[in-house]
Amino acid sequence: MNELDLIELILHETSAYVKAKYAGRTRLQVHEKRGANDLLTEVDVAVQDLIVNRIKNSFPTDAVIAEEEGLDQHPASPPSRCWVIDPIDGTQNFLRGLFPAFGISIAFVREGAISAAGIAMPITQDVYLAERNCGATRNTHPLQVSRHGDLGRARVEVDFSNPEDREFTLESLGRVIHAAGELRCKGAATVALCAIAAAEAEAYVHVGLHPWDYAAGQLIVEEAGGTASRLDGSPLALFDGKEGILISNGAVHNALLAQLSMPHDPVRAPE
């Protein structure tokens, strides 16, 4: 079994479990991590454990980087083979029944480059998959980003993140907020990035994300024909310590970069 096959297998298994737990979400154990808006549920932990165990059974020497349970340390240099996992991206949406829009995200990284990736949307039962230089699919159907290049008509996802990031977000993205034709904020990077890959939106911008938030989605968008960069236009590398991302259909990328105002280049300190 290769890496993409393993990702697909895990996503189907975990998606069914998460969908079942979503029905009883009001009875779940919930804890705060770094604040009232940063939540952890028993489902996040169980899904991550299942994913890690499946990976270790198939590839026991591979490194794993994940959001929960002490696996969230950014490596000083990329391991030759590693997996980047977000067990539930959009935990707030999962808990509160919003939309409902949340996803399970798994990426395989070889020599620092994302090589295979998958995202599952448990409620809709959609599975997005991508392999480097082989394209991206949703439920086996090929994906292609939109070609809308007019920012004034584009649908742009702007995530306003946590209160501590809000001032910087508004300062940096103020001109984007005024220039974009439509604004959305689903509160889950996986959902936003899959929408770009499926030509349902044109761009996603965020001032502060970890690699597990966007790794799988980045490859899915790129393999659907899109573009990814840091907010200053530099290449988007998983383990460079920087936070801001701009991922788009490519056609509106330069127009968005021109509207960004970066007072400084945030770098995430190891946690």
What is the makeup of the main sheet? 7 strands, mixed
Q: How are the strands of the largest sheet arranged?
A: 3-4-5-6-7-8-9
Number of strands: 14
Order of helices and strands: HEEHEEHEEEEEEHEHEHEEH
State the shape: globular
- The total domain count is 2
CATH level 1 name of the largest domain: Alpha Beta
Share of helix among residues?
25-40%
Query: What is the overall pLDDT average?
Result: 90
Architecture per CATH nomenclature, i.e. the level-2 architecture of the largest domain? 2-Layer Sandwich
CATH superfamily of the largest domain: Fructose-1,6-Bisphosphatase, subunit A, domain 1
CATH topology tier name of the largest domain: Fructose-1,6-Bisphosphatase, Chain A, domain 1
- For the terminal residues, how far apart are their CA atoms? 34 Å
Q: Extract low-pLDDT stretches.
A: 264-271
- State the helix count: 7
Strand content: 25-35%
Structural class: alpha+beta
Structural notes for this entry:
The protein is α+β, with helices and mostly antiparallel strands. It folds into 2 domains: 3-142, Fructose-1,6-Bisphosphatase, Chain A, domain 1 (2-Layer Sandwich), CATH 3.30.540; 151-259, D-Maltodextrin-Binding Protein, domain 2 (3-Layer(aba) Sandwich). The protein is 33% helix and 26% strand. The protein contains 7 helices and 14 strands. The strands form 3 sheets. A 7-stranded mixed β-sheet has the order 3-4-5-6-7-8-9, with helices on both faces. Strands 11-10-12-14-13 form a 5-stranded mixed β-sheet, with helices on both faces. A two-stranded antiparallel sheet has the order 1-2. β7 (126-131) and β8 (135-138) form a beta hairpin. α1 (3-23) runs antiparallel to α2 (42-58) and α5 (189-197) runs parallel beside α6 (211-223). The longest helix has 21 residues, at 3-23.
